[in-house]
Design goal:
The protein is α/β, with parallel strands linked by helices and 165 residues long.
Length: 165
C-alpha cells in the first residue's frame, strides 16, 4: 500500500473532543497524519503555539495513535503541507456554515499546492455544536467542560481558563 501522509491543521485553542474525533478518524484512513497547530492572525489565542502543540501531544499519546505526529507552524498551510511531503489536507466540517469557508480555503490551497487534495470529514453528531470558542467561554465562567475536552488535557485547560482554576 502506498504511504499517504495527511496534514490535519487547526488552531486547536484548545483541542476539543471534536478535534480528537477527526484526528482519530483520519489516523485510521491514512498511513501518517501530522496534526499541526497553526498560527492565525485573525485569532487571538489563549494558548501559545508551543502550548497547543504540547496539549495535542498529550491527547495523541493518551489515545495511542502511533501513526500521528504533532507539529506547529506559522507557514501558509499549502507551504507547510508541501514541506512535509503530504498530499492530503484533512479538515473537519461541523455545519453548512463551515463548508463555505473551508471550500474557499481548499480551492486556495489547491491553487498554491496542486499536488495536495483537501478531504472533508464530517463531525460526529454529538460534536456538531462544539468549538474551541465555546469551550473557552464556558471554562472562563467556571462551567463544566469535562464532556467537551479530552481527559488528558482537562486540568491544563481548566487551570488556564477557569476563574476557579
Amino acid at each position: 500500500m502506498k504511504e499517504v501522509i495527511a496534514v490535519c491543521p487547526g488552531s486547536f485553542d484548545p483541542i476539543t473532543v471534536g478535534h480528537l474525533d477527526i484526528i482519530s478518524r483520519a489516523a485510521h484512513q491514512f498511513s501518517k497524519v501530522i496534526v499541526v497547530a497553526m498560527s492565525n492572525d485573525a485569532k487571538h489565542p489563549v494558548f501559545s503555539l508551543d502550548e497547543r502543540k504540547a496539549l495535542i501531544e498529550k491527547c495523541i499519546k493518551a489515545e495511542g495513535l502511533t501513526n500521528v505526529q504533532v507539529d506547529s507552524s506559522d507557514l501558509l498551510l499549502a507551504d507547510y503541507t508541501r514541506s512535509v511531503g503530504a498530499t492530503v489536507i484533512v479538515k473537519g466540517l461541523r455545519a453548512v456554515t463551515d463548508f463555505e469557508y473551508e471550500f474557499q480555503m481548499a480551492l486556495t490551497n489547491k491553487k498554491l499546492y496542486p499536488d495536495a487534495e483537501t478531504v472533508f470529514l464530517t463531525t460526529s453528531a454529538e460534536n456538531l455544536y462544539l468549538s474551541s470558542s465555546l469551550v473557552k467561554m464556558i471554562a472562563s465562567r467556571g462551567g463544566d467542560i469535562s464532556s467537551f475536552v479530552p481527559p488528558a488535557v482537562h486540568s491544563d485547560i481548566i487551570n488556564r481558563l477557569s476563574k476557579k482554576g
